[in-house]
Every structure is written in structure tokens, then in C-alpha cells.
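Continuing the batch. This is chain 6 of the set; chains 1 through 5 are on the previous pages. Same settings as before, nothing changed between runs. Recording input and output for traceability.
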Amino acid sequence: MTTKYILHGGYTSADNKLNHTFYQEIARDVPDHGKILLCYFASKDDDNSGRFVEDSKRIKQQSHGKQFNFIEAEENSFIDQLKLSDALYLRGGSTPKLLSVLGQYVNFKELLGGKTVAGSSAGAYVIGKYSAFHDDESGGKVRQGLGLLPLKVVCHYESKDLPPNPEALELLMNTEPELETVYLKDWEWRVIVQ
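Output for chain 6:
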């Protein structure tokens, strides 16, 4: 059973054509009245109700008239929620925080079969095998993701606001050089089906 992954370079809140098509791609394969699980485990805030309303609205606006049931992911019932969902959206924020939460679900990858899985920034980083730290993070090194896709992922590429750390980017290029590196500028996205 194939899974459609959508990797997004970051800043999904901006109102522009690239982000509109990103939300359209999330909605594309979800059936009418399907379920979309919105995950904010990377968020630094305790209350994500505003993000939930915004993301639900943005996906609905790009759904070509389809109706969806939106669910906000909760750590204690995440696996059950995921089993019932047609799509999962991992919104950005803190990559270490998202990795620590998703890393506790041992059968996570198997449960994604047949679904659309979208990840923006931190969400894209956890989908890949490796990524580079940003200047606002400690370390300046290569970070290991969940390896759902055998890729090196670089989000916010050439961003004026949140570029990857140059030293970390160089280290990333020398890590498992046989792996493809996906470079995503702010708002850019790419689909990979596996």
C-alpha cells in the first residue's frame, strides 16, 4: 500500500499560490467526508485551537467542494486517531519536540500506508532520514529524522528568516552521500509516493 508524502519548506501561514497548491494537494486524494488529522506536536504553545481553525479553513478552501472531518491530534489517542484518518498533516515548530513525541509510536510508519502525509518544516524533517540544524537551534550539526523516506531534507533553503546553519548543511552533504537531498525554499513543496 503506497503512501503519498508531501514535504513543505515552511511558513504555511503565508497567503500565496504555493501554499494554496500545498493545501490543495493535501485534499486531493482524501475522499468526500474523509478525515484529516491535524498534528501540532511540534508546537511550542499549549493551545493550538487557532492553528486548527486556520488549517481546517485553508484545506477546506482548496478542497474543490469536498467536505472533510478535521481532528486535532492528541498524544494519548494518536494511534487510534491515525487509524481512522485518511490524511495526516504534521505542522512545523520544534523538530526535537516532534521527534520525541512521534518516536514513541513503534508502529507509526506502518499505520501511514495508503494515506496522504504532509509535513511542513519540522514535519518534513521528521519524515526524512537526515536534516541540518538551523541557526536558532543548538548544535549546528546533522539531525536524524524518523527515516520514513530515505532522504536528506533541507527546509527554509536560502531563507532570509530561518536558513539552515551553513556548517550543518556542509556536514549534511557529507552524510550518506548516496541519499538524495531535497532542497525546499520557504513555501515550496514536493510530493513523493512510496
